[in-house]
Amino acid sequence: MRTNKQLLGDFGENLIIKKFNCPKCKRIKSLKKLPQNFKCADIICDFCGYLAQVKTKTVSDIEKFPSKVLGAAWGPQKERMDVGIYFPLFVVLKNGRNHSVFYLSSDLQTEEMFIKRKPLSKNAKRAGWQGFYFDGELMKKFISRLL
Asked: What sign has the CA pseudo-torsion 38, 40, 42, 47?
């Protein structure tokens, strides 16, 4: 059974593949979900290979970009950043039936936008796992609203 957070993530990914064409090749209906736990990306264009992350967050105001957006695993993200690989980012903000979509291209991302979190405690189910979040304050001047 999917958790509420997983269902929220599913909502965001489904919204992006339903509402948007591929930003790279512009092909209609070519964005598809990647398998769960694919590292650092959530969707792919099945025509040109474009990859992107989708992050979805419940907020009280869909007009205001949040100061933090939860990321995923720090290790794979850091490895990619060390060699200059960044994936475009869609951020879906949801409040009940209302939602907005923001987009940050990979060429506008900087290492400072990725903030490492503390590792999970030794008593946690996934002890030692370390995540990150996106610094929304740094992203605000570069992000574009799409919807």
From this structure: negative
